[in-house]
């Protein structure tokens, strides 16, 4: 069931009307005026979402024997303080003190400069190169009232274009400077704006009746998986590598959400945390995927200012070093096959590598699966190698070891610096700080110990400062401490695993699938079709009695019972609308199959099966038709193979 | 697979150890010290939960063609203000200003009085009638330090007992009086307590960057369904009755959560809102369930101070008027069959009716499915007839009609009072209040209009006050207004549907199923078994190669591939532990089937199938064994029928 089969150009407005009319989703609390960034899924959207999640669970969790966990969304402050979210999970915003309006700083700069460039082009009499598909930006730009046909100096045009190319990379203060430099004001009123300030995107609340325990709604599901690492490793009988997975809602308090399902404040995520030996990131099943051909947009191409895709196999991509390691590559290929399975158009899917300045300092490599929509290329799945960062920070904060201990095949002899402390003398000397000083010493790295050992040997003492005892320089001589290189035989290797994290935004994926599967019948642009794959379509079968004649009712009942027993989701439409109208309604709902019950059905229990995209029909017995539906829907059989034994049928009633 | 098959008494401690050891669930953020009332589900708990939800979806949504929706958890203040949650969704708490401790007032009174009664019994030399199963209360009472063997006056004993019998019915001020009257203090320190104050159980947060829009995390999923009523009715082609349903997390900021999964701050709910004509609450499928026999605890029995169950069919219960109507009765029966299907012990399930003082004023009738556990009888499913309350209040607040309009079979002539307003004169007279006065008049009921019409006729004018214009008495004469009885022909009937609401607490149900299915093998109390029904068991099959010999590996691989293709969740245990140990581990995980691969399997691809509860074994081919597993697990076939064609097998390795 391919898309883009229509000669009628895609219209986002038409799609949005269909999605609203069929209640795939709608703004939450609409009768109260709505809240931006919050959406409810109606029955077909909800069923589609459940089917996508079910497919995800089978494709990843069951297929790979992952350990699924369900962790709470409410999270105490301390956890996100450690993970870095309290300090860094923020966007920059500018306030207009007069109107109370709030703007996201990077979006504001982008919109204003783009509007000025457009005005410049118009003034120069050049045709604007409007990217046909980016209707969203068009709408946004309309809001910028200051679009005036003013010609800009050539240098300024070049400057603006340079800024726009790097717009994702600016810090808040840098954005503030740009706003000042280019005299950017409230586009609606022309009024002045305050300098950008940071706005943390986590929703906060208080846990418990005292109001003392600050908590957040998680902005991702990952932390719950990291915190349960030791329990999961134990559950897995200490075997490595292994993956955990989690499907659940996350929350981000976006500054000014727009673009429908693409930027929302509450959303469904599916995340995998694959824990792997940092010294061996090979994957046992990599061979199964190595020939999968993908479209890559690597970082060096982007840095060179280009968008040209590299088409190659994932095997080659790993071999050449473009993709960091086999495990990362394996997941990239599996992400691809999942997306195709649920209806993504492969020609509108690319894997974009993060550039150095986008990536967290600890990450080894990161690729986003981006889907092309009328809003541009949208990041729908992230796939990052997060190294040992998360486990390390939580371990350091809680003093709980989050490590793997592996019996070495043979004992190894190692030389290492060790620190020996005269505990009894620490108490009298440091009193309440004794524990802190001891802990500081025991947490030094081998390099640091080497330096300290040298200092101790050379000067007979060491001196240092500890952040939590700011007013004191600590001095220790050999009466208190000894640091020496010792030789040890080790039987066990202890290491903190690295984490490969594929992270899926289900709502964004679903929206992209809507765009990729939506088209209108060439013979009638008002007849829209949502060509969802049968596997994820909300309803698989529409049962249509040809008329409301009583004779047909027993057959409808019997066939309903059979479909219910086979657990094939179906709907009956016995309304008085014409057959064509009833099918048209269900084409919009993405229902892949229609079964028509007519007066011949009463005689011999034969029925007609209609395929949504081609409107082809075949005829056969109840049993054979239901078997064909099952094979095509759940076992990936094609329409022509699935219906090969059935009789082609020329509609007796037409489809119009 | 029946429970209670062991002669070894149930021990909650043993169950809790098993659930923890096998990571069914664990306190969230445990390495950070945990947060009370928050739990994470580990892999088996998560799979069990997913299977319970999947069964629920099929049992209710698919079977009854309900409209599933997925609404946001974040909810603006106004919605819960209207629903009554902002004002009434609260518990009463007492603070100890010295220690900062906070007590839930009703629990405190209950614990202290119970402790005193116990001390009294001891002083009188009477044996305390300890309810064997209520270990939780025992633990709580231990915390009450003031248990002293002091004999109380007989009247005081009677008073305490009377208070305890009504403990769920006291208001906050009443609890405050009891605390004063009985001199109840902080049981730990003896220090004084502040009078009870209300604590709202909703978590609050701010939506958007301005911090101006107050929001809450929903404490139930229902409101989202009510707010979407008109869209759902439209989606259902205006047909009535119909039901919506929702599965998702809800949040309650409990004052002092305890009792594990039974009282938590974040929990999974599954709720149905069945919209029905208030004048016809019959149910078309009631006949299918009318003979289901249930245990009822009706309100009059409770009011009479008894716990004696009434055993009767749901058909009789509705006929006698004990259960208000057929639709409510239908859902009670369907709740019963769902609970049995997922492993609830029918002898420990009762339906308790709410007494008049427990029920909201608008509710017509309400029954809770209660499950008996070591914590006592626990409310796990509520089933209430909420009348037209919710739709009415949201409609009144938003001025959006939330009604059904039905074409009458024949036009009817009605007499009704109507108010006629001289709009043009309202503006000059009332200025900015004109709209408010007009709205007030148009919203009067027929009874109110009748009174006003009389006043107007008798005195030539009407006068009234409006809450939102407090300082003014409004007077209107016939120049401004006319109120008269008119005769009208109506073709359409307009009504606000009533709502029947079955509401499931999934975590509580799962915990009760744990207790109902847990037992220890009589021959060895350390060998525990979770007799979960195969349908919901986390893993269906354990694959056990008899030894780690290389010859067995290809068979393990082949069988794994087959099970994966059939989508039967399974695990391989090829560890070096003995067969018996490996099975014991999986008995604790509730895995219903074991397949042993031995050296005969290499020769003829035959394998042995073991049943968890009986440890019976049969032998057959791959195909036949997998077919048997599928039939028993998913099609409700019994072990003896499912394995009738297979060969009984005497263990060659024993189960020990």
Write the layout of secondary structure elements.
Two copies of one chain form a homodimer.
Chain A: H1 12-21, E1 25-27, E2 39-41, H2 43-64, E3 67-68, E4 74-76, H3 77-83, H4 85-88, E5 90-95, E6 102-104, H5 105-123, H6 135-143, H7 154-165, H8 172-181, E7 197-200, E8 204-207, E9 213-217, H9 222-227, H10 229-235, E10 242-251, E11 266-276, H11 286-289, E12 293-297, H12 299-303, E13 310-313, H13 314-319, H14 326-341, E14 349-353, E15 365-373, E16 376-385, H15 389-398, E17 404-421, H16 423-430, H17 434-442, H18 446-459, E18 461-466, E19 469-477, E20 481-495, E21 498-505, H19 506-517, E22 518-521, E23 524-530, E24 541-545, H20 553-565, E25 570-572, H21 579-588, E26 593-597, H22 599-604, E27 606-611, E28 617-621, H23 622-634, H24 639-642, E29 647-648
Q: What does this entry show, briefly?
A:
Two copies of one chain form a homodimer. The first copy, chain A, has 656 residues and is an alpha+beta fold.
């Amino acid at each position: 069931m391919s898309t883009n089969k229509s000669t009628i150009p895609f219209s986002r407005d038409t799609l949005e009307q269909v999605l609203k009319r069929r209640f795939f989703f709608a703004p939450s609390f609409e009768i109260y005026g709505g809240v931006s960034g919050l959406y409810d899924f109606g029955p077909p959207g909800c069923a589609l979402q459940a089917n996508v999640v079910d497919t995800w669970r089978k494709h990843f969790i069951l297929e790979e024997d992952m350990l699924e966990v369900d962790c709470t969304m409410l999270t105490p402050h301390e956890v996100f303080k450690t993970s870095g979210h309290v300090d860094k999970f923020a966007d920059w915003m500018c306030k207009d003190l007069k109107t109370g309006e709030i703007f996201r700083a990077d979006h504001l700069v982008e919109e204003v400069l783009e509007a000025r460039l457009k005005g410049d082009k118009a003034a120069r009499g050049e045709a604007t190169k409007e990217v046909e598909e980016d209707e969203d930006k068009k709408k946004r730009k309309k809001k910028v009232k200051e679009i005036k046909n003013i010609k800009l100096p050539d240098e300024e045009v070049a400057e603006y274009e340079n800024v726009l190319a790097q717009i994702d990379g600016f810090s808040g203060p840098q954005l503030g400077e740009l706003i000042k430099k280019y005299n950017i004001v409230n586009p609606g009123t022309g009024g002045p704006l305050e300098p950008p300030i940071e706005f943390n995107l986590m929703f906060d609340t208080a846990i418990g009746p005292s109001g003392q325990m600050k908590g957040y709604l998680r902005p991702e599901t990952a932390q719950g998986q990291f915190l349960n690492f030791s329990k999961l490793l134990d559950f897995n009988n200490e075997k490595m590598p292994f993956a955990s997975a989690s499907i659940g809602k996350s929350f981000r308090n976006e500054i000014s959400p727009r673009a429908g399902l693409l930027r929302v404040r509450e959303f469904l995520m599916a995340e995998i945390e694959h824990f792997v030996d940092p010294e061996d990131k090979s994957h046992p099943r990599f061979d199964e995927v190595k020939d999968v051909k993908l479209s890559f947009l690597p970082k060096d191409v982007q840095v060179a200012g280009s968008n040209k895709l590299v088409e190659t196999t994932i095997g080659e991509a790993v071999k050449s070093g473009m993709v960091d390691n086999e495990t990362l590559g394996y997941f990239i290929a599996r992400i691809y096959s999942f997306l195709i399975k649920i209806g993504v158009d492969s020609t509108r899917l690319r894997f974009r590598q993060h550039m150095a300045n986008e990536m967290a300092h600890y990450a080894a490599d990161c690729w986003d699966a981006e889907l092309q929509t009328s809003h541009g290329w949208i990041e729908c799945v992230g796939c990052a190698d997060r190294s040992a960062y998360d486990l390390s920070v939580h371990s350091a904060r809680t003093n709980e070891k989050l490590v793997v201990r592996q019996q070495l095949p043979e004992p190894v002899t190692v030389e290492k610096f060790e620190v020996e402390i005269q505990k009894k003398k620490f108490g009298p000397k440091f009193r309440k700080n004794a524990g802190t000083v001891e802990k500081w010493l025991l947490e030094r790295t081998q390099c640091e110990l080497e330096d300290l050992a040298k200092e101790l040997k050379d000067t007979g003492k060491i001196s240092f400062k500890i952040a939590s005892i700011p007013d004191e320089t600590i001095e220790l001589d050999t009466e208190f401490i000894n640091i020496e290189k010792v030789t040890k035989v080790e039987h066990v290797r202890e290491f903190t695993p690295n984490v490969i994290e594929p992270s899926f935004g289900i709502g964004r994926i679903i929206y992209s699938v809507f765009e990729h599967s939506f088209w209108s019948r060439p013979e009638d642009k008002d007849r829209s079709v949502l060509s969802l794959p049968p596997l994820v379509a909300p309803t698989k079968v529409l049962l249509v009695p040809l008329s409301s004649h009583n004779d047909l009712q027993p057959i409808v009942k019997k066939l309903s019972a059979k479909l219910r027993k086979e657990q094939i989701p179906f709907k009956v439409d016995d309304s008085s609308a014409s057959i064509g109208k009833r099918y048209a309604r269900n084409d919009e709902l993405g229902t892949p199959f229609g079964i028509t019950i007519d007066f011949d059905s009463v005689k011999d229990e034969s029925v007609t099966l209609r395929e949504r995209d081609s409107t082809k029909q075949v005829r056969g017995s109840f049993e054979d038709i239901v078997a064909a539906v099952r094979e095509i829907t759940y076992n990936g059989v094609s329409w022509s193979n699935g219906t090969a034994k059935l009789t082609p049928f020329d509609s007796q009633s037409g489809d119009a």
